[in-house]
Amino acid sequence: MRLTVIGCAGSFPGPESASSSYLVQADDEAGRTWSLLLDLGSGALGPLQRYCDPVDLDAIGLSHLHPDHMADMCGLYVYLKYRPRGHGGHAEGAGTGARRGPLDVHGPFGTASRLAAAYGLEPGESMTDQLAVHAWQPGRPIQVGPLTLTPVAVEHPVPAYGVRVTGPSERDPTRRVTLAYTGDTDSCPGLDALAREADVLLAEAAFVEGRDDDVRGIHLTGRRAGQAAADGGAGRLVLTHVPAWNPPGAAYDEAVAVYPGPIDLARPGMVVEL
Ligand SMILES: [Zn+2]
Ligand SMILES: [Zn+2]
After folding, report:
1. Which CATH number is 2-273's, of 3.40.50.300, 1.20.1560.10, 3.60.15.10, 3.30.470.10?
2. Could you tell me whether strands 271-273 and 2-7 are parallel, antiparallel, or unpaired per DSSP bridges?
3. Domain limits of the chain?
């Protein structure tokens, strides 16, 4: 299983990165590559195309419905619906530009109507020709080829989920490894459950200690992300969702003070093999 960071800017696209979007891929026993996209925030559809033809996505998981996590779903719909015949597609249907059916999209309750409103559909119109939208059921696993997704409710001002993705190790496919993605959250029991014995904890760190101490229930700081990784025994911490207005390196400096394991700051194009 491998993670490619498509966009890692927090809250809005920055000069160096699109908003949140993460490509998770794994090969099954037959050698077919399965592609799961976690979030498709503002600006992320462009760089996604460097790594994956969007037609080839097998599923999308939306952590929540803030624009920095789902705004580019509108552009994706246009791409899926209107691309010229013969354009794109590397999997089955290659050369025809055809998907095998609508793309599975997992998100909070209300995702379908929110996407339709964002796209400007009239009442009664829907996107079901291209997108099959399913509501997360906390704790109920979803299978995407060799990947198992488990959504976990977390603490944010709107319904929000982190996702544990378990799949075959890149180096030893007989071993199962876990990537835990926090989405947007403050410290909470859901975060603790996500981080527990994760091989990689991909954790947001939008807030800064000292600057944002009065605002709780929305985001992690680098320190709170590091504490979750330490408490859960996570093998590696990747900090992400850092807004462009934060002091560079603050999230890392906070996390390294409380988490003894390896820490990276996410950057666009970064690949993490699990
Ligand atoms: Zn966000
Ligand atoms: Zn949010």
Report:
1. 3.60.15.10
2. antiparallel
3. 2-273
| H helical segments located in 95-237 | 111-119, 189-195, 222-232
Residues in contact with 124: Cβ distance below 8 Å, sequence separation at least 6, in sequence order: none
| Global confidence as pTM | 0.95
Distance 248 CA to ligand 2 centre (A): 21
Block mean pLDDT (10 aa), the chain, length 274: 98 97 97 98 98 97 98 98 78 51 97 96 92 96 98 98 98 96 98 98 98 98 98 98 96 98 98 98
Using DSSP, state whether 3 is helix, strand or coil.
Answer: strand
CA of residue 123 to ligand 2 center, whole Å = 27
Q: Any idea which ligand is nearest the CA of 243?
A: 1
